[in-house]
Specification:
single chain; mainly beta; seven-stranded antiparallel β-sheet; about 0% helix; about 50% strand
């Protein structure tokens, strides 16, 4: 019959782990020469109270175990012996418990221990082993992180140092915010002193970091947040983006597409008009990118337009191109595109895909509603295409 109950107290307090273990083995005296045979049998009831004492110094962390059993009623009973070891059935250590049914073993280290009890009489005859009980003492306390500091700070690097109260590995998590985002390489050497150099940092920048260490038992400690600032100064960016490859694409009698590139991420905008004074502007693409495209619509057929492209980088430096020109086509098309293959597909509970074709390149847009009164419109799609 086996029954087990375990209770834990708060971390940092003395831990009393109670293991209630009932064993009912049959133990008989062995017949020895020149002694009488003890032919009666007795039952040993092992009632184990396990006490674990968590100490602040890991190297001396140990456990105590108290074993109790029911007494034997033989008149020539002399006492009991407690046997234990770290392998099942292999009890390399024997302790005399005297004629009492409770015995405490102290100073057991981390690991699994196996216990058994024997009885002996006044003639020195000893019984066989009782049923076996076992208990595992595991370390669950993470390392203490001590003396965390930042040393050898330069424009682009810093060294993080700390110690632990037991051998442990080490790693640093760091970044320009408490989200961190970068990790130093894991130093898997288990040691007391730890140091990690963080390279590739930006000058005059505040960094956040925390240190982590895991001991040999797998217990991990993570520090709170710390900060340091690299030395040096930040050179302000005063260089405007370089504008290249400025072109027009897909020009019709009423529209055109202006495209260009920049050597750094920047915004996109085009000013345009029928003279170098311009007077009109495309919407601004605020997303910073290096490839730019703005579509100009509502133009007059057969007209020469002036334009210039404008891009602003993250530091606010504004680049404006020289004046450029393009001409819309002169032909006036009074015939509307012809629709065909109008259909719907990929319908869900809140969306539908409408597709169609046209006999000439055209824009695409869908008006829709719950009745024939169409109150909503999809986004107008450029550039011109035959498939929509």
């Amino acid at each position: 019959m086996f029954f087990q109950t375990t209770r834990f107290l708060h971390s940092g307090q003395k831990q009393n782990h109670f293991l209630n273990l009932f064993i009912t083995p049959r133990i008989e005296k062995t017949k020895c020469q020149k002694t009488r045979f003890w032919d009666k049998t007795f039952w040993v009831l092992g009632f184990f109270f396990i006490f674990l004492f968590s100490l602040p110094v890991h190297s001396v962390l140990a456990g105590d175990v108290t074993l109790s059993w029911l007494p034997n009623d033989e008149p020539d009973l002399a006492g009991y012996s407690v046997h234990y070891g770290t392998s099942s059935g292999d009890y390399v250590t024997k302790r005399d418990a005297g004629n009492q049914t409770t015995f405490t073993l102290s100073g057991l280290g981390i690991g699994t221990y196996y216990f058994a009890v024997t009885a002996y009489d006044t003639s020195g005859n000893e019984s066989g082993f009782s049923g076996e009980a076992s208990k595992t003492f595991s370390e669950t306390i993470p390392p203490s992180l001590l003396f965390i500091s930042t040393e050898m700070i330069t424009d682009t690097s810093a060294a993080i140092t700390w110690t632990t109260d037991e051998p442990a590995n080490s790693r640093v998590e760091y970044g320009i915010s408490q989200s961190y985002g970068q990790l130093s390489p894991l130093n898997n050497a288990f040691q007391i002193g730890h140091s990690h150099t963080l390279p590739g940092l930006a000058p005059a920048t505040t960094y956040h970091y925390r240190v982590m260490s895991t001991d040999k038992s797998g217990n991990t400690a993570v520090s709170g947040n710390f900060t340091f600032k690299t030395s040096g100064s930040v050179t302000p960016d005063t260089t405007v983006p370089v504008l290249t490859n400025i072109t027009t694409q897909d020009t019709t009698n009423v529209s055109t597409i202006i495209q260009w590139n920049t050597n750094e991420a920047a915004t996109s905008r085009v000013e345009y008009g029928r003279s170098p004074s311009y007077g009109q502007s495309s919407d601004v693409q605020e997303t910073l990118m290096t490839t730019h495209s703005r579509t100009l619509i509502g133009l007059l057929p057969g007209t020469t337009y002036h334009y210039r492209v404008i891009s602003r980088d993250a530091s606010g430096n504004l680049a404006v191109s020289d004046d450029q020109t393009f001409g819309t086509t002169n032909n006036t098309d009074n015939i509307a595109p012809v629709f065909f293959n109008i259909g719907s597909g990929t319908i869900t509970y809140n969306s539908a895909l409408i597709s169609w074709g046209t006999d000439e390149a055209a824009t695409g847009q869908v008006d829709y509603g719950k009745t024939t009164i169409l109150l909503s419109s999809s986004e107008l799609v450029f550039p011109l295409s035959n498939n929509h």
